[in-house]
Amino acid sequence: MAGRFGAAPVLSLTAWSLLGCYAYQPSSEVLPAAPSANVRVTLNPAGSAFVRQSLGNDVRDIEGVVLRRTADSLVLAVERTYTSANERYQSSGDTVTVAVSGTERVDVRKISRSRSLLFGLGIVAAVALALVGIASSVGGASGDGLPSPIQP
Fold it and tell me: How far apart are CA 48 and CA 107, in angstroms?
């Protein structure tokens, strides 16, 4: 029975950690991303029209990994796309070249201090709750620890 109570905090922490402690942050450079960086590219109407053949209609944002960077373009391994209606589509291994002239902005995925702090506080809270639960189940089992008297 104690195994079930111990597994719940571990499973919830594992699920929460999959959310990650990262956030997309705007970059001050036109093409900030070095190869292997995770980025989100927001396209302008010309950029959306350019990727229509390879990624589909009405693509507004592309999330992926930078494969190559030139002076005027990024080559991305696409992970997900979002339409202007904010519909999300998972990629099936597409690679796309995005020209600087087709972008509104490029955000780089970086560690988020606020999310990391919340994650750390969540771990501390979950461990504290688990310890309180274990202490109450062990402490409240038999009272004073003496065997109960035999009833006539």
Answer: 17
